[in-house]
């Protein structure tokens, strides 16, 4: 197998699909598009990935998927869920598998890695994306390969122009390759029953809730978090806890 000249690690969301179109318009050759299998994508995302892989291949690009431990087994191993402070999931599910893929397919480290990160996505000045570089001669997350972020200075309109030319509809939400702990209210509203059941079962297995109650007005457990997401802002009220029952009847009345 010929080593790739360019590698795009894609979630097949808006940014990475626009980046694939960018690579096509620049007539790049030897492009590999790599999807990270997290084992925790939303129920409807598999079809999206399949269609986008077919599209990328129609442009002459090769498509691949990485393999990882998968989020459910990782949560079982850690006996809990990642938090905003300790997001160990990204490394184990995306970065580490990506590094293994690069080592196998580009052992001489000649490939240029393309990423779709945009500084405009930063939530605040301390967000790493706020100062994301447009170029790195040696990117640590890519095994010291060259990294280019063509969209670093792009706003949504500039990115969306590539999607329009590709004939791809702009998604009204982020990529859904993972039922993320950072899902906001809008993201949570999109979870279907299959997604809710999967999270509910994993919560029961590890004995902890995936979403922190203090960040969701006290909502504990995925079904209550979904109820919070669908409530009017500030109007959610968690259910009353049942009164304790003393079976022995020795408690003071």
Outline of the structure:
With 253 residues, the protein is an alpha/beta fold. It is built from eight helices and six strands. The longest helix is centred in the middle third of the chain and has 18 residues, at 88-105.
List keywords for this structure.
253 residues; alpha/beta; Rossmann fold; 8 helices
Provide a descriptive summary of the structure in words.
- The chain is α/β, with parallel strands linked by helices.
- It folds into two domains: 6-166, 3-Layer(aba) Sandwich (Rossmann fold), CATH 3.40.50.620; 185-229, no CATH class.
- Helix content is 36%, strand content 11%.
- The chain has eight helices and six strands.
- A six-stranded mixed β-sheet has the order 3-2-1-4-6-5.
- Mean pLDDT is 89; it is low at 242-253.
List the helices and strands and how they pair.
Elements: E1 6-10, H1 14-25, E2 31-36, H2 45-58, E3 62-66, H3 71-78, H4 88-105, E4 112-114, E5 135-139, E6 145-148, H5 156-166, H6 185-189, H7 193-206, H8 222-229
Parallel strand pairs: 1-2, 1-4, 2-3, 4-6
Antiparallel strand pairs: 5-6
Helix pairs in contact: 1-5
